[in-house]
UniProtKB/TrEMBL annotation, chains A, B:
Species name: Actinomadura meridiana
Xref: InterPro entries: Homeodomain-like_sf, HTH-type_TetR-like_transc_reg, HTH_TetR, Repressor_TetR_C, Tet_transcr_reg_TetR-rel_C_sf
SUPFAM superfamilies: Homeodomain-like, Tetracyclin repressor-like, C-terminal domain
Domain HTH tetR-type residues, every copy: 32-92
Assigned keywords, A-Z: DNA-binding, Transcription, Transcription regulation
DNA-binding region: 55-74
Transmembrane segments: none
The protein's name: HTH tetR-type domain-containing protein
Taxonomy, superkingdom: Bacteria
Residues making up the signal peptide according to the UniProt record: none
Length: 254, 254
DNA sequence: TCGCGTTTGTGTAAGGTACACACGAATAAA
DNA sequence: TTTATTCGTGTGTACCTTACACAAACGCGA
């Protein structure tokens, strides 16, 4: 079991995420909510109105409490966000095992991340404080590490590659969401293009201007686009595995 | 020149970033500041105390004004942030030209981004609303597109690859900063490890646990690490260019 | 069984900060 | 003088968080 570490000194959410409080005393007034219910309500709130709407007063109102009462369940808003992230990402996917199936595994993993961001678009907005420390998020890390090290990568290489896949998934989901709503601030907007295109031609941005006019600058991200970038990364990993990198071993500039 | 688009309807910062106000009338009270001075002060504020300290009241106090007065120079906080980003990233690097030098160019570009994040660590914290629309940021985009299309990539491929490099640079800088400060919340903390390690072993996270104990999970990101990931991406691009992708053309799972 | 202290949850109120706006005073050119 | 523009004061709203008092529920002793 766990050592005698004081939960108070741990980072926000760590103790709660691992179910550590272990509320033994059944004394006192029974809580109207549980931590799980609070987090669940927060998730619903973010699902409905976006990450910006996830405030303590709004959450309290949704639960029929005052803003203050929330702090009996979580110590701070940061702690709540950690738990919300843990719940939002949910359990990690099951990946196929076997050294020759690492491409399938990595693809599944990355697409699962993007899928989760489609389910909970606010996942992209959650601040990332550092390396994951909660069960679900650690499981996501564990399974991709298992696939990559199983394929022959060193632990350190595996982390680097996992990070690359993670970043790629998040950013892809982010852009896809931005383009999907396509509000007035988007580059797709005719007003923006009318303003920007003359300036681009005048100040020497031929490539950006061409992309903008051909609408390739802000088109939707479809499945093929995801596959494209993913293939590129996987090919890079593959080169790393087979050791026959096209040009060099350490110097990327050449 | 520009068309008759109403600057009011443009996204925040767009008009100001392109120097559009063109304040012709010299009537009325002379402003005590200029937009450039306001933005510069905001940059200094963020440099000194981090992105969180970049608030309108604090900025006003630094300039000897009230919070309200700032809104005479920028329409909203979002507009200020757009201009701050434009100034913070600064001018794009000059890249070597020539189809056979694209690796050098891409490497320079990526390392320049990371360098900028070392100069202004808060750049990573700035929210990204969508595709860049300001002169400096568009120049960053233009130069990398020039290198990649010059090497033989299609415009759409070039954008995808540029995005990948961009994401890699930002995330690398982000992690490096997080590890550099290495505060109590970090995984490096002994308290966290004392709490987490038994749980990891108990619940079946052998790989993460091994990495954490060997301290490879939270080590600093040195130059070799940056080179590693960059090489991987560039090798992926190289495979795209030469058309001899190791395994497949479209399906990354295979 | 009853009462009491203890423990715990909740509400009220308040402090502190931030973004943003309405209005009038101050300023300086035309 | 007229007019346009900046600036300060004051206001309003919203948010995170804490301090304090009250209310409820349980265990224990009488």
């Amino acid at each position: 079991m766990s050592t005698g570490v004081d939960p108070q000194e741990l980072p926000p959410g760590l103790a709660l995420a691992w179910g550590l409080p272990a509320k033994t005393s059944k004394l006192g007034r029974t809580p109207s909510q549980s931590v799980e219910q609070v987090v669940e309500a927060a998730v619903e709130l973010a699902d409905a109105d976006g990450f910006a709407a996830l405030s303590m007063p709004k959450l309290a109102k949704k639960l029929g409490l005052t803003a203050n009462a929330i702090y009996r369940y979580v110590r701070s808003r940061d702690e709540l966000l950690v738990l919300v992230a843990e719940t939002g990402w949910g359990p990690a996917p099951d990946l196929v095992s076997g050294a020759d199936r690492w491409r399938t595994a990595a693809t599944t993993w990355t697409r699962s991340m993007i899928d989760r961001c489609d389910v909970h678009p606010w996942l992209v907005d959650l601040p990332v404080r550092g390396a994951p420390v909660t069960p679900n998020l650690l499981r996501w890390t564990e399974v991709i590490l298992e696939s990559l090290t199983g394929a022959g990568l060193s632990p350190k290489e595996a982390i680097q590659c996992a990070l690359l896949l993670d970043v790629y998934a998040r950013r892809t989901a982010d852009m896809r969401r931005d383009l999907r709503q396509s509000n007035a601030g988007s580059v797709k907007s005719t007003t923006v293009q009318d303003f920007l295109l003359p300036l681009l031609h005048e100040h020497g941005y031929p490539l950006v201007a061409a992309l903008m006019t051909s609408n390739e600058y802000s088109d939707d991200i479809d499945d093929n686009d995801v596959t494209f970038g993913l293939t590129l990364i996987l090919d890079g990993i593959d080169g790393l595995l087979s050791g026959n990198k096209p040009h060099h071993t350490t110097d990327p500039a050449g």
